[in-house]
Amino acid sequence: MGRSRAVLVGACSLLIAVSSPALARTADGPAPVCGHQPAEYEEAPPGAVAIDPGVDGDLSVKTAAHPPGTTFWLRPGTHTLGTDEFGQVVPKDGDVYLGAPGAVVDGRGVNRAAFTQRARDVQLRGLTIRGFAALQDQGVVNHDSGDGWLIENTTIEDNAGAGLMAGAGQVVRHSCLRNNGQYGLNAYQPGDGITGLVLEGNEITGNNTGDWETRVPGCGCSGGAKFWAVDGADIRGNWVHGNHGAGLWADTNNNDFLLEDNVFEANDAEALFYETSYNLVLRGNTFRGNTLVQGRAFASRGDNFPVATVYLSESGGEPRVPARTSAIDISGNTFEDNWAGITLWENADRFCNSPANTSSGYCTKVAAKSSCVAGTIEKPPAYGDCRWKTQQVEIHGNTFRFDPGRVGCTSLCGRMALLSNFGTFPDWSPYKGNAVQEAITFQQGNRWHGNSYAGPWAFVVHDTSRTVDAAGWRAEPYSQDECSSFDGGAAVC
C-alpha cells in the first residue's frame, strides 16, 4: 500500500459495451450534486415506518424492533443515535432508509459510525449523514462492507475517516461525498475483495481534510476514493474535484476498471492513481487543473520525478487475469492545463516478497508467493510473474493541452513519462541494474499514438535523467506517438 515512485496492443479490441449516462452539466462545467439533491420522499410511502427526530437512539431502536425488509422514513430534522461512540444503526437484510427533505443523521462528533454490520441489499436514499467520528481506515456508512447496498441521492459529509465503505455489488448513484476526513469512499472488504462496484453521477469533493499523508508519511491512506482488490468497477459520469490528495486511487490488485465520462478537476495530487493493478479502460474523461499542489511541491524541492495527472505505477494489461479487456486502454480523454500528463512507471525493486513492496503480504495475481524467493524467482515463469508490470498500455486519441502560464509553472511540468529506476534492492533481487528500465521502455508494449498535443510538452523516458522533446520522443529508439499532432491540430497519419 502507498505511493510507489515510481504492448502487444496495437488496435486493442475492447469488449466493453455499456451505456454511460451523460454527466449533468451547466454552461460553466459539471452540474453540482452537493447541495442540489432532489426533494424526494416528502411524504412517507405506504407501509413505511415514520421516524421522528430528536429522540436519542430512535432510529436504531426502531430498526431493531422491525423485521428485515422494512422501509423507514425519516422526517425532516436532525436525527441522533445515542450518547456514546457506539451509538449506531444495525440494518437487517433489505432494509430501506428514506430521508424527507431536510432529514439529517448527525453523529455530533460522538458516534463512530452511522450504519454498521453485514446486512445485504440495504438502501439509503435522500439522507444527509454528517458529524461521525470514524477511526483511521474505517467508515461511517456501511461500516462493515455489506454487499448489495444502494446509496442514492444521499449526502455524506464532514465525517472523520471514510464517509462510505463498499461491499460487493454496491451502487452509489447521484450522491455527494464531501469534506470527509480521510476518504469519501474506501472500497475495501476483507477476504476475496469486492466485485461489481458502480459509482455513477456522484460529486466527490474536498476529501482528506485530515491531511493523512502528512500525519502518517507514506501511509497511502487518502483520496477522494480509494480502491483495494476491487475486481470489476464501473465509474461513470462523476465529478471528482478539489480533493486534498489523489482524486481516485486504485491500490493493489484491482482489476477490470472502466472509467468514462468523468470530470477530474483541481485535485491536489493525481486525478487517477492506478497502482499494482490490472486491466483498465479510461475513456472520454476530462482532466482539468489537477496535480498543481503536488507538482509545485516536487518542483520547489528540486525533485525531478515526473508527477502525473494519470499515474500508472506497476500496473498493466494481463490476459491471464479475466476482465473485459486485457490491456490498459486510455483513449478519447481531454487533458487541459494540468501540471503534467501521464506517467508510466515501474519500480524495479518492488515485487512479490520484496521488502520494497509497500503492499506487504500481497503477491501478484499471476504468481504464487512461494515461487517469489531466492533460488526460484530468477527462473521462468517466476521471473516474469513475480513483478507487477507496467505493460500493454495503449494511449491514443487523446487531447493534451498545456499552457505553463495558466498552470503557473516554470520547470518540471508539462511532461509525459515512461520510465523505471535502476534496480538495487534487495540483495536477492533478479531485477538489479537496468533490466526493468529496458523492459518498460522497449519490451512491454507501452505505446502512445494518434494523440493531439498543444503546448511545450517534454518526455521523460527510460529513467529520470533522460528528457527529450517531441522530435526525440518520436525518433528511434523510442518511436512513440506515431500519427500524433504537436501543433494542437487533429492527429493525422
UniProtKB/TrEMBL annotation:
* Pfam families cross-referenced by the UniProt entry: Beta_helix
Instruction: Identify the keywords attached in UniProt to this record, alphabetized.
Output: Repeat, Signal
List, for all copies, the residue spans of the domain called Right handed beta helix: 142-291
**Keyword Amino-acid biosynthesis on this protein?**
no
Q: Specify the signal sequence span.
A: 1-24
InterPro entries, alphabetized = Beta_helix, PbH1, Pectin_lyas_fold, Pectin_lyase_fold/virulence, SCF-Subunits/Alg-Epimerases
The yes or no answer to whether the keyword Signal is present is: yes
- Can you say what this protein is called? Right-handed parallel beta-helix repeat-containing protein
State the organism's lineage: Bacteria, Bacillati, Actinomycetota, Actinomycetes, Pseudonocardiales
